[in-house]
Amino acid sequence: MSQIYSVIGTRPIRHDGVDKVTGRAQYGADFQAAGLLHGRILRSPHAHAKIKKIDVSKALALPGVEAVITSADFPDPGDRMANLGEGAIKLRDLSSNCLARDKVFYKGQAVAAVAAANGHIAEEACKLIQVEYEVLPSVTEVVKAMQPGAPILHDDLVTESMAGPAEKKPTNIAKHLQYKLGDPDKGFADARIVIEKSFNTATVHQGYIEPHNASALWNADGALTIWCSTQGAFTVRAQVAELLQMPIAKVKVVPMEIGGGFGGKIRVYLEPVAAVLSKKTGKPVKVLMDRAACFEATGPTPGSFIKVKVGADANGKITAAHAYLAYEAGAFPGSPIWAGCVCIFSCYDIPNLLIDGYDVCVNKPATSAYRAPGATNAAMAMETVVDEICEKLKIDPLEFRIKNSSKEGSRRADGPVFPRIGGVETLQAAKNHPHYKAPLTQGTNPAFPRGRGVAAGFWFNIGLKSSVSASVNGDGSVSMVEGSTDIGGTRTSIAMQLAETLGIRAEDVKPSVADTDSVGYTDVTGGSRVTYATGWAAFEAGKDIQRQMIDKVAVLWKVKPEELEYKGGAVVSKSDAAKKITFQEVAAEAQKHGSVIIGRASVDPPWPGGAFAVNIVDVEVDPETGKVNILRFTAVQDCGKAIHPSYVEGQIQGGSVQGIGWALNEEYVYNDKGVMANASFLDYRMPTALDLPMIDAVIVEVPDPGHPYGVRGVGEVPIVPPCGAIANAIYAAVGVRMDVLPMSPPRVCKAMMKMKS
Predict the structure, then answer these.
(1) Closest by alpha carbon to 272, among 119, 79, 110?
(2) CATH number of 551's domain
(3) Which of 329, 384, 561, 733 could share a disulfide with 449, CB 3.0–4.6 Å?
(4) What is the pLDDT of residues 17-29, one digit of tens each?
(5) Which domain, by its residues, includes 278?
(6) What pTM value is reported for the model?
């Protein structure tokens, strides 16, 4: 029987809602300060080139210009590695991505920066900076970058494998991962049917509505303050301190409100630049990106080449699987290849498998996370192959998935054994949903065929460190301070867990997101960790408050603390349940006697079991143009326990919509010179409300046994299955198996024509 809660599972109005809808919330571009200068960035016109000379004299001579900087103004970071929020990264690469050193590796890479009295002057000054380049051959496709004779981006890069460097010669292949379980050869020999297919997926962008921004003030006392829209203030602090070789104590980061991130606002781009410009001028400096720069010079998710081979016996049990994944890292090593390898088979309990993953540098911006990074590419490949196996064996696609689903005790490819998870329950909920049971009706135009597809997806979620402090006020309200950037309503989801722990209303908790000097260390908002981990910290802070209240009441009643307990929002005598004092009354007594109750907690919880999602999608295909219309979309997801169901539904719907865009239209288009041809929202086609049906979000609750309230992260797994589900629906409609993303009208049309020829 599920636990009954008083706050968790309700739908209170979000605490920051009024400021957001009235426009009073302060975003990065809203920052103002006395004497504020405006910064702009000069970016490379070439995809790959040596920088032979930079002359900034004409820019410095322009009236209104107060500083011009290049990478020469940054300390030399050397070849040190550091873990700064997205895994280990070479500091030289991170520094070069902020301002290029001796080479540029992609069109749009930052080369120099200007601070001036206003943005117009700064832009004019950028045009006056003279850069002499030696243009080099470029490569923007992952398969071509792996071939002998491909242009080499980094002369000192050799392949790192689990057995050490593979060869001591320069390459674009930064890393080779391999995972193996059982005996794949025997598993394929035991199979009744084996399907093997290859897939190509394009580079796509997170599409956040707010561009990158950073403001900085390098004070006369050597202290640096940064204001920016980031997914992790402590992550920014760590990166800036390392790049500028400053003590952590000298750097304070103030997180502004953030207009979307989805993984793309973790790495620093502008923050070190604004800081050095401020140091040179002695004034605060604000640097903003335009939309083209966001596309060309911030981290998209990687394009990929994937081969999947799966075998199944006559009873529909998967006997073996093999995957080959090559992911674009962009200009510097660091694609989400590990996550792709982990996720590609994790929906299924497969006894024999082999996975090879490759991290490959190409002349594109360095890739960043994008909502379950690496998992959507992988699921597109696996779920399409699974659908074909179901067709060949004449097995219902959801029955097949239920029969092969991962469950408690199943081993993941990378080693961990699943604890209690909701893979089977999510599939069963999809199978029992009215959408799946309803017949697929023909539309008004019988020439437009319709089809239904399903797909499953997995994301592992993460734990990491979070801190919360909560001060009890005399009126019974609680001021809660936490360090997780609020992107999707997490102020409220965290406050609700504190309120549940204390037995008070969610409205009585006043949450705030603090700067790095005002709260304990908290890791990045990403990995679907905030409601899980920071919520856990709020729970522990609440337990701390409970203990303090028991101690104070024990003094007030002249009894021992062990004779009391905290229950139902009150301190209660264990021997006489009628003798109790409410939270509000204790708060008032504490204030009356001059005592302070502050709950504190810092947690580093274990990584949870992961999240599972299933999509059911109906499509209609225009046979003449290849345009795919989404008619109906149902997204089923296990969230452990829905703290605020409205926010959970919103996350599911938002991730599904981004998956639909990835499936049907979104892609980076490069010409033969490595220049992105569609770096604007006019040409980079994201779905609008006119392209979408209502997304039916179905919440399944299989509580995580390790979390106090059973929470599983919800933000990332909804983007994983849509591409596969839509590909399978297209096949059901027109009989062509799509092996490329996006499945845009020209590609679908071409596939249909090829099938007919």
Answers:
(1) 110
(2) 3.30.365.10
(3) 733
(4) 999 999 999 999 9
(5) 31-136+213-260+265-297
(6) 0.97
